[in-house]
Design brief:
The protein has eight helices and ten strands. It is an alpha+beta fold. It has two domains: 3-34 and 177-251, Arc Repressor Mutant, subunit A (Orthogonal Bundle), CATH 1.10.10.10; 47-147, Jelly Rolls (Sandwich), CATH 2.60.120.10. The chain has a four-stranded antiparallel β-sheet with strand order 1-8-3-6. A four-stranded antiparallel β-sheet has the order 2-7-4-5. A two-stranded antiparallel ribbon has the order 9-10.
């Protein structure tokens, strides 16, 4: 790695970053890139089938690519469940600067802040692709969580995994170089570490969007993407294909 791409800070600070990002018990990868211990537990419960049984308070919605689902500042009165498609979450600062905080896919929940007392949306949700989404009113969601313990357990596990991801994102942003941050986000977008074969990263994902997500410039993203491709870590074939060998960048000191 070039000196420009190395993490700034004292040796002690870099040591803390490595200890925080990598689970010693796993030995092979940062905890954000492997199945969590909670996720390893087999769950036979089908949330899609269960949510389909909720009558009043549930509504199936279809969104076209780039269509807004809700906006920052809207009333937080429902939870959303992605049946198919991709959803992008963004936040905008008081001075108008926008940042992408996540891209969600099939089986993910979002907008759950209202269940914990959040009155207004703290982010905006936009369809990244054509989407089929289930909107569940806050009251109906609370009743479902109290009525079906398996669903409640699954939902809590999902929220814990999401919280761990946010903590790891913060550590990544604070301590790791932009090259490592890019490698990590590509692996996460490719679902590396989850069961099954890693999928193609969101088709035609722009370098501007990747730059937003890791907090760097488009030119730096372009430089690293070209380097990853030359090293055989990624390739383009109708979409961006990510190979597990890209993990070498994340683990490299």
């Amino acid at each position: 790695m070039s000196p420009a791409g190395q993490t700034k800070g004292t040796p002690q600070r870099r040591k803390i970053a490595r200890q925080t990002s990598i689970d010693p018990a796993l030995q092979t990868a940062p905890s954000g890139l492997v199945p969590s211990l909670l996720a390893k537990k087999k769950v036979n419960f089908d949330p899609h089938a269960f949510l389909s049984t909720i009558g009043e308070g549930r509504k199936s919605l279809l969104f076209q690519r780039k269509q807004g689902i809700f906006a920052q500042g809207d009333t937080a009165d429902a939870v959303f469940y992605i049946q198919t498609g991709k959803v992008k979450l963004t936040v905008v600062s008081n001075i108008g600067k926008e940042a992408t905080i996540g891209i969600l896919g099939d089986g993910d929940f979002f907008g759950e802040g209202g269940l914990a007392g959040q009155l207004l949306r703290m982010s905006s949700a936009t369809a990244k692709t054509d989407c089929a989404v289930l909107r569940i009113d806050k009251k109906a969601m609370m009743e479902a969580l109290h009525r079906e313990h398996e669903f409640s357990d699954l939902f809590v596990t999902y929220l814990l995994a999401r919280n761990i991801r946010y903590e790891e994102d913060l550590v990544d942003q604070l301590f790791n170089s932009s090259e490592k941050r890019l490698a990590r986000i590509l692996l996460l977008l490719a679902h590396f570490g989850k069961e099954g074969i890693p999928e193609t990263v969101v088709p035609k994902i722009s370098q501007e969007l990747l730059a937003e997500m890791i907090g760097t410039t488009r030119s730096r993203v372009s430089f690293f993407m070209n380097r990853f491709r030359e090293l055989g870590f990624i390739h383009y074939n109708g979409g961006l294909q990510v190979h597990s060998s890209l993990l070498n960048i994340v683990l490299h000191d």
